[in-house]
Amino acid sequence: MQRDGYLILSNGTVFKGEMFGAEGQVTGELVFTTAMTGYLEALTDPGYYGQIVIQTFPLIGNYGVIPQDFESDKVHVKGYIVRQWCQVPSNFRCEGRLDTFLTQNGVVALSGIDTRELTRIVRRNGVMNARISASPELTEAEAKALADYKVRDAVKSVTCASSRTVGEGKYHVVIWDLGAKKGIEESLIKRDCRVTYMPATSTAEEILALKPDGILLSNGPGDPDDIEDIISEVKKVAQEKIPTMGICLGHLVLAKALGGRCIKMKYGHRGENQPVKDAFGDRIYITAQGHGYAVDTDNLPEGGVVSYINVNDGTCEGIKYTDRPAFTLQFHPEACGGPLDTEFMFDNFIDMMKEGK
After folding, report:
1. Which of 15, 265, 271, 321 is the most exposed, fewest CB within 10 Å of its CB?
2. Does 155-356 match 4-151 at the fold level?
């Protein structure tokens, strides 16, 4: 049976659609992703914690649910908006329908929304709060909750609860887990690495006690300015100049730890088709991204030089450190954006660890 639903934006705009997935009402930060595929990866990406995600591609769910493609063991989005969802998926790996998957994971979703117009609103006005509801009207309490909503305790909500080690490779890499995607682990293990996950709240002493060959600061959700306690521990470890790679939030965290500044973007970069230029050459890469903050190029960290630049808006997409064995990337080299254009970034990390040994 059809269930009418409404998307209410904090600027007062209301869209009518049809609810699917779980029943209920939800408030979150409204963002969009331009990916044509990869909806399962987006739903299970810890980087979307606290957000209502708009899929700009008009048909979602056509290859169903494939657990092998999940980026974590749970769904992290607060709500989900699509133009149309496919009720009869077809793929030899398919193990279920999108609607059932969202229901099982408690995700409230809307279809039948003009996602083109909705995305244009976000692009014009910037990321804003929104509410999915069965009613187009808000009570006074609901209106206040919508206006006051902020993604809080994001990293601490998605990081691992305790340390664990996977793989038996030659190089011991600590993933400082700010909300790591599964693909990062897989990229390291196939390059002869033994990977130890450490919670985001780990101390510098706990990280250094493991005597890692390298440290990977992972991706994750939220505002880097909200995790100063974590950044202070990263700063201590950074002084040891252990080979370090940072991805997405990890890129921002190391920049702040070494004296840089981060800025909030108007609507961010989310999708698997983001063009990035090598600052030292003419090569352009197609990358996967999912972030709403960037390193301020007018306030770079100590020893840092911009290594990659976003072709669309000129923002910083990577930093190479000249005073230590470290580099960071705003995009995801493990996420098959090119589809394999940027995997060599992990090889560069391995080379740094070889030199360290």
Report:
1. 265
2. no
- In the numeric block, the tokens 């995607």 are attached to 181
At residue 339, the pLDDT reads: 79
Catalytic pick among 185, 233, 248, 291? 248
Burial class (CB in 10 A: 0-12, 13-18, 19+), 73: exposed
pLDDT at 338: 75
Active-site pick, 41, 317, 332, 336: 332
Distance between CA atoms of 62 and 270, rounded to whole angstroms?
21
Low-confidence ranges of the chain (pLDDT < 70): 1
**Helix axis angle, 249-257 relative to 228-238, nearest 10°?**
70
* 29 counts as catalytic: no
In the sheet with 326-329, reading across from the earlier edge strand, the strands are: 164-166, 193-199, 171-177, 214-217, 244-247, 326-329, 316-321, 304-310, 262-278, 284-295
Active-site residue, selected from the candidate residues 316, 317, 334, 336 = 334
Rg of the chain in Å (alpha carbons): 20
Is 248 designated active site? Answer: yes
pLDDT at 340: 81
Q: Does domain 4-151 have CATH number 3.30.70.1060?
A: no
334 is catalytic: yes
155-356 CATH pick, 3.40.50.880, 3.40.50.150, 3.40.50.20, 3.30.457.10: 3.40.50.880
Residue 124: per-residue pLDDT = 97
Of 210, 23, 336, whose CA–CA distance to 345 is shortest?
336
- Domain segments of the chain as ranges: 4-151, 155-356
Here the tokens at position 44 are 């299970």
